[in-house]
Amino acid sequence: MAKTITPTKNLESLLIKLIEEVKFANKKLDLIIKQNHNKLTQKNKKTSNNKLTKDSLIVPDVLSLLSLPTHLRKTVIALYKLEKATAEDLSKETKRQRAVESASANQLTRMGYLKKFRQGHKVYFYIEQKQEENK
Questions:
Q1: Which of 30, 63, 107, 126: CA 20 to 30 A from 76?
Q2: Which residues lie closer than 8 Å to 58 by C-beta, 6 or more apart?
């Protein structure tokens, strides 16, 4: 007598296979994020006087954005849209408090992802587009 596969059994086996595939994809993403984090850490080394070097700016790409916490990633994505913005401009774009955006943008600046400049009383944040040198 042939075994009959019920729709429930078939669905269950598909779900198990899907879960295994998702776990495999997660492991691969974790590996990519870890490798990217190591590269970013090496690029972001500080000089002896504890200041970031002139060349330590990290241009946010897809992999570095994945390694950022969600609250910082949201700020970077908003800044990509606006090109240059004050904390108030960022808060309007992200629908978060100005103080939250100011703290996030300043943290990203300290990390080397953003640059900032003052124009009058306002401080503007921007992403400096740095050309990768051919090695």
A1: 30
A2: 40, 43, 44, 64, 111, 112, 113
CA 85 to centroid of chain Cα atoms: 18
Q: Are 103 and 91 in contact (CB under 8 A)?
A: no
Q: Using alpha carbons only, what angle is made at residue 61 by residues 100 and 72, rounded to the nearest 5 degrees?
A: 15
CA distance 123 to 33: 32
Q: How far apart are CA 135 and CA 121, in angstroms?
A: 41
Strand partners, 46: 52
Place of tokens 């974790």: 30
Task: For residue range 26-82, list pLDDT tens digits in order.
Answer: 777 777 776 666 666 665 554 434 554 444 555 666 777 778 888 898 999 899 899
- Decide yes or no: CATH 1.10.10.10 for domain 62-126: yes
